[in-house]
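Please complete every field before forwarding. Incomplete forms are returned to the sender.

SECTION A: IDENTIFIERS
Entry label: holo-302
Bound molecule: adenosine-5'-triphosphate
Molecule representation: SMILES string

SECTION B: INPUTS
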Amino acid sequence: MSDPTPVEKGLAAEVQGMSESELAQHLEEVAEAVAPDREIQVDVGDTLLELDDVTLRFGGLVALDSVSFGIRRGEILGMIGPNGAGKTTCFNVMTGVYRPSSGEVRLEGRRLGRLKRYQITRRGIARTFQNIRLFEEMTALENVVVGTDARHKTSVVGALARLPRHWQEERAGVERAMALLEFVGIADRAADRAKNLPYGYQRRLEIARALATEPKLLCLDEPAAGFNPAEKDELMELIRRIRDDGYTVLLIEHDMRVVMGVTDRIVVLEFGKKIAEGTPAQVRDDPAVIAAYLGVPDDGAA
Ligand SMILES: Nc1ncnc2c1ncn2[C@@H]1O[C@H](COP(=O)(O)OP(=O)(O)OP(=O)(O)O)[C@@H](O)[C@H]1O
Ligand SMILES: [Mg+2]
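SECTION C: PREDICTED COMPLEX
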């Protein structure tokens, strides 16, 4: 039997002291963060993902109300709307956390149906979370390696059971993970545990881990939250580079300067309904959007 690899040790440390239900939840999260074995798609323009008349109810609350829109391959689509408008819920429906009460979500024309979260990751949707979710006890590098290698789906169990593993396979993942850390600009802290990283690094680490799964669609839930203006500029630059690398990006963001500055189109939600869709300029000048969300036009005329 070979020794556990560093990532397996990390995974084992991560689960120490967990109850059975926590472990089950954790295994699901690891599985969700794992890469499929597939090429990145770079054809631009056709519809990658569609929400078709999606409604989601939580008891009496209609969190999404007949929402339809498409995301085109190669674009950066913004999603805005007041607090509680249903933006994160939209992500949750697209990533299998919730199933629509009615309507459907299609990726490349295929219904997501009853797929589980990790199966949707494999089909090509990755996300970050409004409240950062990382493997805290693992290093930055290990967090990304987990995303690079489908073998790690079973590694928590494997590491615990001390199953033999091959360092070489992990090494390829480590190299790719290191490149991703460089790409998002946090390679200097690769060996630090996620929980000890500064906030801005944690946000970038989540993006690197999501990219490690080679998603067709990358969904970012308020990635600029808590950033200062300089950090927001860097993030905008990063999002553009991600798109230029052949990914499609869906961006939930409250900061209007970021949204207007980086997106190609924007979808606006309010009380679970889509109230507008268009280019940043169209959306900015839409009276319904101004009333619902922006309050006062940018030029201060009102
Ligand atoms: N699991 C749930 N159970 C019950 N209600 C929920 C659940 N998740 C979300 N909601 C409700 O659905 C509505 C939409 O929430 P959601 O988190 O999608 O809003 P949001 O647009 O992301 O807001 P924010 O800008 O504050 O993040 C809210 O009224 C919220 O309270
Ligand atoms: Mg939200």
